[in-house]
Design brief:
alpha/beta, Rossmann fold, paralog of FGE (formylglycine-generating enzyme), six-stranded mixed β-sheet, four-stranded mixed β-sheet, 20 helices, 33% helix, elongated
Length: 510
Amino acid sequence: MAKLLFLSANPPSTPRLGLDEEVRAIEANLHMSPAQHRIEFIPKLAVRPGDLLPLLNEHKPDIVHFSGHFHSSGSMILAGDDSGPLPVDKTALSELFCLFKQNLRLLVFNACDSRIQAELMTSSIGCVIAMSAPFSDQAARHFAASFYGALAFGLSVKDAFEQSTISLGLRGISEQHIPVLMGSRDARKIVFSPDSIRKPDASKTSVKHYLARKSDLMEATLRLLTSEECFALENRDLSSILQPIASWEPRCADALALEVISACPQRFRLSLLGELFPLLELSRLQSASPGDLALGPILAAGQLDVRVRDLLEWQPISMSGDVPIFEILRYPVTESIVSRLGLDRNAATGDSDALPATRMNYAECSAIALLLGGCLPTVAELTLAGWHTRSGHTRRYPWGDMPDPNRSNCRESALMKPCSVTEHAGLGTSDWGVEDLAGNVWEWTRTPDEFQLERLLVVGGSYAEYQHASSMGMVTSHSPEARLNNIGFRVVREWNEHAAAGRRIGDNRD
């Protein structure tokens, strides 16, 4: 369900607005729709600057709407601690909303002279509605009610915007030219309808059924995939064999994948994984929680080679709110780990097994992450582990707010190739004890690029970029098929209190 966070402020010394009437009109139009459940309406009145971050963290809205006043300079006016008007710095407000761009798909400033603020946000949010001139209270109320009513009927942002401006003219309000739709995203493709959300398929095999007595289909497929005849075929096409897996419940498919890669000859493992993972549901790879991919209980039973397990150092990350409690590898996955998994990928390892494992595409990295007991992280998880402190504050870089080429492998270092993941240990360490997150190699995430959904975001910068590319919030994206020397990966997994009690690495940094 899409969430609409309605923020408003009307300090006593500012012109009075009918904000309660606007809330009532929006609620009425949402409930007129036969599918009013599509948008959850969350109104918050008399908002102060200190309320913004807690509200955004709590609700993680898809849409943020503001009704109130803007200063002629373009600054939003909120209520101060003394209830008086308090202009909010335009740059600070832009940076705040940029932190939530992974969830935030639309900003609406239903207030006079809000275009200046909106223009600062279009590059990060992608779709913003603002008012280019003074806008009457009556016009603002009718525009908002018509717009959200149209969204609740399943219309796109573009179509709903056009309908709501036309509705002003139909009511005899000659201000239909004042609302402007801005941004880099195609607003016709933004729809807040549950029709675009994957619905549970009752025909899928359940996890309980699989764990209890494996379906005949899964057993038959497993026998076929692991047969000598299958792996002996030259130029084999596995797609037709693997296609049925795409319709299975995600954890069943993951469990089967683990069995297959354990059973097949080593020389075929990585090519099989490359065929298998694109067929599995992308929804589970893009999930907000590492637990949705957790194979920890299976791997803990002894299917992971103890020589590989000894190379893995997990750092616990815990913070209430944004992400669940999880663990992340202290270092990126290295060539040594990949080679000990027995995966022959015909790639040179360089001068050291401590080099980050690179030249692998997203599917291959996802598969190896499964073997190691977890999955690739989201952008939010990497950001929390690298650029947030234990006290809840943020840093520009993992080590602090000042750039320092001696703390990471970046363009200023002039090495221009990957180095050992331990090269800057203790220098570029995050407050959580995670190493080598800035520079050296970009790291795959399972977060899609909001503006190019067929691409995935990578984080952290590399040896080829200036150090600024590894500062907080900096990302770029690549095709999932990319195999580059400057992209590596690390793994996250569910927090396991019992396993953590016996691991070699403690909670604190060494």
